[in-house]
Amino acid sequence: MKLEDVRHRLAKHPEKQYKRRPLTSIKQIAIHHSGTREGDAFSFARYHVHENDWPGIGYHYVILKDGTIQWTNDLEVISYHVQNHNPSAVGICLVGDFRKEIINTNQKDSLRSLCEFLLVKLSLSPLNILGHNELLQGKTECPALNMNELRQYLTQNYVEIYLENKKMDVSGIIKEGITFVALRPFAEQLGYQVFWDGEKRRIYLTKK
Ligand SMILES: [Zn+2]
Asked: Which domain does 133 fall in, by range?
């Protein structure tokens, strides 16, 4: 997964600022296409700021044709991309117009990896990943992609984790027989506190 952090290099409105949220208020990941054959985070940011008069780019990630993922907003930023769902949604935009062209393998692979990362990071399930058109119930064709196929792919690797009989608020992804989870929420729900020593690059788990 090739990730390029461009959050601080994009056009921003001189006065306006997006509101922010805690990560726990994120409940959906919304998938978009740009509806254009070309473009990138820089051109979309200029358009959203100069033409739409928005505080900044509307998306959290942009996936280029070569599969590069541009990280465009902190996940805490409540940017504009799915109307009244903005406060609870993260926006991923794939460059292309999938009404007229087919998503290429680079973009498809990057989208899958990014979704897996976000499921683990945000404790979500594949059912929380929706097309823009599904969230807004047919008011747009965006992203013109087969969302069931994406969810089915993610479901193959996704696992729920139960502590005794209670479902934990933690998502796991299994790769090659190894289960990847976010350590902090996992350990905290087991009753441990997590301390990070950056100098020694050590994590200490201590009983709460
Ligand atoms: Zn859209």
From this structure: 3-160
**Residue 70 alpha carbon to ligand 1 centre in Å:** 17
**pLDDT tens by residue, 174-205:** 999 999 999 999 999 999 999 999 999 999 99
Distance 46 CA to ligand 1 centre (A): 17
Is residue 25 one of the residues assigned to a domain? yes
Q: Is residue 70 part of a domain?
A: yes
The structure tokens listed for 183 are: 């350590």
Indicate the number of domains in the chain: 1
Question: Do you know the residue count of the chain?
Answer: 208
Q: Tell me, what's the ipTM?
A: 0.99
Distance between Cα 132 and ligand 1 center (Å): 5
Sequence-distant (≥ 6) Cβ neighbours of residue 171 within 8 angstroms: 119, 120, 122, 123, 124, 125, 158, 159, 160, 161, 181, 182
For residue 81, report the distance from its CA to the centre of ligand 1, in Å: 7
Ligand 1 is an ion; residues with CB less than 5 A from it: 32, 132, 142
CATH of the domain at 20: 3.40.80.10
